[in-house]
Specification:
The protein is mainly α and 392 residues long. Among the domains are: 1-141, Ammonium transporter fold; 280-391, no CATH class. The chain has 18 helices and no strands. It has helices at 2-13, 21-34, 36-55, 60-64, 70-82, 87-109, 117-133, 152-161, 170-181, 185-196, 208-212, 218-226, 232-254, 262-279, 288-308, 318-338, 344-358, 369-391.
């Protein structure tokens, strides 16, 4: 009985990459602070996932570590939030949790770290089934009230809390961070960084309802926690992943997509993918990191241009936002591409390739060379600073 409880708590803690049962207990308390019913459903999804793993005879140690419980935990929470409760919902919860567990094993066999991808796929499929055959189970979306100003602490706390879909109380975010801190202070610090960095969105958006609800920050928290490490390059990769996740979340919200934690998964896959490609020797695929650099530079410049168009004329913070966003990105991208090869000049070359390719933006309507240079100069500065640091 005691072992079963520990496994369940570890399954909760593993949502934020913590194996400690105490971490899981604090996080479960954070969920219960928002709703005891949601906390109970989280445990039900967790138990269903672990039971599926037992029946499929998956590795016992992995089950004990909670690796087959955290996706079920998230499924249970999502079911409690998005659907009305009933016996049909209970069956769907068990089925979706089991499907998430099977997906975990599938990702492992493909040698791909799935993170919360099994949860995302299960909930998307569940949403499709309900929309087609049981629309009466769907809970009507609440109309968000307009908010006139950012609320910094609330946005920070809910950015952490939304990692488990907790957007009603700041207590959840505080307890989630506490749960991480009791097991690993570095991981908690990275998570806090992942929640702080997206707060810069407040300077470029007027949708303060979404901002204050933590919807721009929770993927960043997961990215930072997933990539936490002792080296400077770990911090650089985490920072790049956080920025990518913010952009992907913005796009998903703009297109009306139920993103869940997809921006987190995609961002970490991209960053770790570049790392793996950069460490392979005598392989044609290593050249793809320069292609990735080109695409990433183009995406960043395009994103910067889009939101800049929303700013009023002569917006006083525009220059600071440009440089504050793009200098760290240029620095971190140079770190991730250059330090892996031990050749800092290559990092500058990669960034330069991206800049040269995206100069083609200058031929698009409404964009002139001055606008392009306004985006590229801070990127070059960031890459050059990284080059100077490594040269020393």
């Amino acid at each position: 009985m005691r072992e079963a409880v520990v496994i369940l708590l570890r399954g909760v803690g593993q949502v934020l990459f913590r194996r400690s049962a105490l971490s899981g207990l604090l996080m479960l308390a954070g969920i219960a602070a928002g709703s005891w019913r949601i906390a109970l459903l989280a445990l039900c999804g967790n138990a269903a996932g672990n039971l599926t793993a037992r029946l499929c005879r998956y590795p016992v140690q992995e089950i004990r570590d909670g690796l087959y419980g955290f996706n079920g935990t998230l499924v249970g929470i999502a079911v409690g939030i998005f659907f009305r409760w009933g016996w049909e919902t209970a069956l769907l919860l068990v089925a979706a949790s089991a499907l998430a567990t099977l997906s975990v094993r599938l990702f492992a066999r493909c040698r791909l770290q799935g993170f919360t991808a099994p949860f995302i796929l299960a909930v998307w499929m569940l949403s499709g089934v309900v929309a087609l055959w049981m629309p009466e189970l769907r809970v009507a979306a609440e109309v968000a009230l307009l908010e006139a100003a950012p609320r910094w602490f609330r946005a920070f706390s809910l950015g952490v809390g939304q990692t488990m879909l907790q957007g009603t109380t700041v207590v959840a975010g505080v307890l989630f961070l506490a749960g991480m801190a009791v097991d690993d202070l570095r991981s908690a610090a990275y998570a806090a960084w992942g929640a702080l960095l997206p707060l810069a969105v407040a300077f470029v958006t007027t949708d303060y309802a979404a901002f204050n609800a933590g919807l721009y920050g929770y993927n960043g928290v997961l990215c930072a926690a997933a990539l936490a490490g002792p080296a400077g390059r770990d911090f650089a990769r985490a920072t790049v992943a956080v920025l990518l996740s913010v952009g992907l979340q913005w796009l998903g919200m703009r297109w009306g997509i139920l993103t869940l934690t997809a921006p987190f998964v995609l961002s970490v896959w991209m960053v770790t993918g570049v790392r793996k490609l950069a460490t392979r020797k005598r392989c044609v695929l290593t050249r793809l990191k320069y292609v990735f650099a080109t695409l990433l530079m183009g995406a960043i410049v395009a994103f910067d241009h889009v939101w800049a168009g929303w700013l009023p004329d002569e917006y006083p913070y525009a220059v600071w936002i440009h440089y504050g966003l793009l200098v760290p990105v240029g620095f971190c991208l140079a770190v991730s591409l250059g330090m892996n090869t031990g050749n800092p000049e290559r990092s500058v070359f990669a960034v330069t390739c991206g800049i040269a390719a995206t100069m083609l933006l200058a031929v698009l309507p409404g964009i002139n060379m001055a606008i392009v240079l306004n985006r590229f100069v801070p990127l070059v500065i960031g890459a050059f600073v990284q080059w100077l640091v490594v040269r020393r």
